[in-house]
Design goal:
The chain is mainly alpha-helical and 78 residues long. The protein is 42% helix and 0% strand.
């Protein structure tokens, strides 16, 4: 899967919902978030950030819960 987003995604960031959804789907495919049927909203972003941290830990990346365009987490997630 090719994952691409246009802005940073982080716990307290002003993320674009499309970027959060793309990240959720990429993490889901990689097995790092639970399957849900809800529509992602700001309060649900915690699930995505927890998945990011698990992914970072398992891939020996800096565990900061952030995914930046062309950053290390995005490069490994692709």
């Amino acid at each position: 899967m090719t994952f691409q987003h246009f802005g940073p995604v982080s716990r307290n960031g002003k993320d674009q919902q499309d970027d959060v959804i793309r990240l959720y789907k990429a993490l889901r495919i990689a097995g790092h978030t639970p399957q849900t049927t809800f529509r992602l909203i700001n309060s649900d972003k915690d699930i995505v950030i927890a998945g990011v941290k698990t992914f970072q830990r398992q891939n020996r990346l800096k565990i900061d819960g952030m995914v930046n365009p062309v950053g290390p987490t995005e490069r490994v997630l692709k």
